[in-house]
């Protein structure tokens, strides 16, 4: 398989996995948010103890910070490698997937925390999570900028989005 096709396949798998990790917590959080703000539905849910609620919020915030630090550190490592572009794209994809698993965990924690404690901090944590999701979604432009690609390698990454004839 040629380099452009390998890159396209790698990118499509990355894009699909990121979409799944982004989409799953969304309906869960939507339900929790509507339940806590609507008032028209009543479920017999246990109330989360304060220490557990605060702990979940701290973990969610910690994961938001950790995903940024970890992703940036991994991308810096990839940037300086003198390996073929396919290897660097694979490493970037692995860093992105690790990042989106952490954002997935924040989404789930925020959903459960909001549903069981009704604390607005979980809504804020999820909003920040969505901000990272939208700013961190892998695109050819973001990949090229993050890896500081130039010349032919940059064009190969931009070719990922071009349709095959």
Helix-strand topology string: HHHHHHH
Q: Let me know the largest β-sheet.
A: none
Q: How many beta strands in the DSSP annotation?
A: 0
Backbone CA Rg = 19 Å
End-to-end separation in angstroms reads 16 Å
Spans of at least 5 consecutive residues with low confidence? none
Number of domains: 1
Label the overall shape: elongated
Query: Mean pLDDT, nearest integer?
Result: 90
As a percent range, the share of helical residues equals: over 70%
Count up the helices: 7
The percentage of residues in β strands lies in under 5%
Structural class: mainly alpha
Question: Would you mind describing this structure in some detail?
Answer:
This protein is mostly helical. It has one domain. Helices cover 79% and strands 0% of the residues. The protein is built from seven helices and no strands. The chain has helices at residues 3-23, 25-38, 50-79, 85-117, 120-136, 140-146, 151-158. The chain is elongated and about 60 Å long. The mean pLDDT is 90.
